[in-house]
Write a structure and sequence with these properties.
It is a single chain. Strands 3-2-1-4-5-6-7 form a seven-stranded parallel sheet, sandwiched between helices. It starts with 8 loop residues before the first strand and ends in an 8-residue tail after the last strand. The chain is α/β, with parallel strands linked by helices. It folds into two domains: 202 residues, Rossmann fold, CATH 3.40.50.720; 36 residues. β4, α4 and β5 form a beta-alpha-beta unit. 47% of the residues lie in helices and 15% in strands.
Length: 258
């Protein structure tokens, strides 16, 4: 399926590994020129080289922290007029809300809510003027099925979800869409590290922890990052202009609702 976005320009955050990298790769396969961002220079440069080699697309790596104004400024200097913006940031650590300080909350909100809003603010009007724009925020299935120990993430990502719900309706007439994609358990390094942490804390072996996690998913497996990237690429396509303001779950059926 030709998504009709060859020649478009995209910014993909958190793209050195996992779901962000899979999304950048899927866009590059469609002929999109991609600027990819992450904090560690070595990792993002290696990812850019591999994605470009695989797809033949232009892939520009930028090593920045998008939770800072300086980082966002540098990123936007590399791609000041993107047609596609993929916001993606790793979640804050789990814990007990009684132990979270004001600073902990501010860090979570900066990373998982405000950084996305500020990047949207700087790019949205250009999309409106060109009458094409696709914004995707990679959030979490915990927005719909929150767990108490992930309260920092739940709170910040839910704030972004509410903000997007209103903004998406304001700009839809300009062929600019804003959607959130909510991953469940995808087989990434982050999921593996979370399972490892749980195994150590519970005294169980990693293999049994991972098997138990799979049994919570009706598909009886973890998602593959390529599946996630393909969905994001579709939502960025020219034919997806009637999909906006949505929270799209990719969780193998784990959420027990409609």
């Amino acid at each position: 399926m030709d998504l009709g976005i060859s020649g478009r320009r995209a910014i993909v955050c958190g793209a050195s590994a996992g779901l962000g990298r899979a999304t950048a790769t899927a866009l590059a396969r469609e002929g999109v020129s991609v600027v990819i961002a992450a904090r560690t220079r070595e990792n993002i440069e290696a990812a850019a080289k591999e994605i470009a080699s695989e797809t033949g697309a232009e892939v520009i790596p930028i090593a920045v922290d998008v939770t800072t104004e300086a980082g966002r400024t540098e990123l936007l200097a590399a791609c000041p007029a993107p047609d596609i913006l993929i916001n993606n940031a790793g979640g804050p650590p789990p814990g007990d809300f009684r132990n979270w300080s004001h600073e902990d909350w501010i860090k979570a909100i900066d990373a998982n809510m405000l950084s996305a809003i500020f990047l949207i603010r700087e790019t949205l009007d250009g999309m409106i003027a060109r009458r094409f724009g696709r914004v995707i925020n990679i959030t979490s299935h915990m927005v719909k099925q929150p767990a108490g120990f992930l309260g920092l993430s739940n709170g910040a990502r839910s704030g972004l979800t509410g903000f997007i719900g209103g903004l998406a309706r304001d700009v839809a007439e300009h062929n600019v869409t804003l959607n959130n994609v909510l991953p469940g358990q995808f087989d990434t390094n982050r999921l593996k590290s979370n399972h490892q942490r749980f195994a150590q804390g519970s005294g169980r072996d990693l293999a049994s922890v991972r098997e138990s996690a799979k049994l919570q998913i009706p598909a009886r497996r973890f998602g593959q990052p390529e599946e996630f990237g393909a969905m994001c690429a579709f939502l960025c396509g020219a034919k997806a202009g009637f999909i906006t303001g949505q929270n799209i779950l990719l969780d193998g059926g784990q959420f027990p609702g409609v």
